[in-house]
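Q: What would this complex look like in 3D?
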Amino acid sequence: MEDSLESKVAYQKYVDEKTPNSPTLKNCFCAFLVGGFICALGQVIFEYSKSRGIDETTCYTIVSVSLIFLSSFLTALNIFNRIGKFAGARLFNSNNRLCKFNCVTSYGI
Amino acid sequence: MDWFMILKAFLVGGAICVIGQILIDKTKLTPARILVAFVTLGAILGGLGIYQYLIDFAGCGATVPLTGFGNLLSKGAISEVKDSGFIGAFIGGVKAASAGIASAVFFGYIASLISKPKIKKQ
Amino acid sequence: MKKIGKQTYKIDGDVSILSTACIAGPKEKAGPLSKFFDQTVDDEFWGEETWEKAESKFIKETAELAINKSGLPTNSIDFCFAGDLINQCTTSSFGLMNLNIPYFGVFGACSTFVETNLLGSSMIDGGFAQNVLCACSSHFCSAEKQFRFPLELGNQRPPSAQWTVTAAGASVLIKDGNGPFIRTLTPGKIVDMGIKDAANMGAAMAGAALDTLVTHFNDTGRTPDYYDMIFTGDLGYIGKDILIDLSRESGFDISNNYDDCGVLIFDKKTQDTHSGGSGCGCVASVFGGYIYNQLKSGQLKKILLIATGALTNALTTQQGQTIPGIAHAISIEV
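A: Here is my prediction, written as structure tokens for the whole assembly.
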């Protein structure tokens, strides 16, 4: 086997051709739906809190805490990871921080 | 209920997640690096005052994704500097995000006590 | 033992694989090779508190089953070669410590099963042992925890990713015996193809598989059609394709009598395992049941078993290093 940089670059190019791509369009669609849904849910919580006369900054905090609670609850029920598999980048929410922490703590326990 | 705002939150939040998904699928960036990039981007846009426009437009569609967290950190740091001087830069970010961090620790701990690690159902 | 060519060794006497055993987990039980495992388990924890303890139980039960099937008393086994994917191979050492057999811990990543059999048969043919136990295991949950992310994170896996098999396999080798006989050994060199993508192990390891395959054929003077079947450990669908292409370019056409254990163990359509199975337990459990049965029944008379491993850990990938591979080969004839 040649050891040169050229052959490694050529091999990488060959591997890229051989490796199937993720179904990006489907993934984006799912990420959009689930991500959008979570943000919309947050907005509903926000609107409700505001209608109770709470100031805006605190409303955003309530949204944050509620979503974190929900995601930890769903993780405990083993549902969250199925959503993650479906929705991919949906995990780009503040919920994700919780997940990672959740798991770390549960391994510690 | 401001339904129009909820719709905008859905659209903008979904769009930010799609950007993340494209980064996962099309680049070799690991999820961890993408998350850090989002927070950093949010912090920069927040510090420049630009992110606030997105929040005004889409509400939770801008605050819930991780860019919102970055924005929260930099806004908090800036406002604390105004109040407490230079040291505020260190205090303010975490102070603003304190509720989120504390709830993540607390709920995470409770969840780990009541449930057991499980394999993915797939 | 006699060296032939550059890197291959011919066993002078006879070394037989007297017995094998394999125990697999729930996902493997739901796969196409379900009926070839000695035992399957319905839950990844198998009654233990942690996945690591469960993996130790897998290898312990499998090793004991292989020894029972051999009919040999445990204290007549001279050496044990064993390994797994977990840091410091603790699942093997904790699992097998009560056997009281002189123990060699071995790390070859997913090539460990062939590496242990290679070393074991060398010991026997060299006159250092009469009976040797070879065992290895892998576990999806413990591997994900160590190499990738917590399961609860729900991360997406790209199409090139492979699924670490939850299974253990063991073999008991003896001097002489009635076969199937291990005839030649081709230990592998570490081969680095420059791949950095930890989600595409097949591509990272294919180069090592090619190197060992070509070396074996050049050293022995054989061609692919000498063997009824050539099996690789866990290159997966992508790695398998790559190996067929690369070996054809090197002058060896293996497309008619070649398959991969990672491709065989799961059903791609129904089990969502993307590029197939991987892990030490993959080749160990597929060989221990499916392949060994065919050797015993005479359906397969001559095979070449090449197990491939990716010599990486979570740290080297994070540090931006490449993923070098290794492939060990043994030829088995009845």
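A: To summarize the key features: Residues 3-114 of chain B form one domain. The two ends of chain B are 38 Å apart (CA to CA).
Q: Very helpful, thank you.
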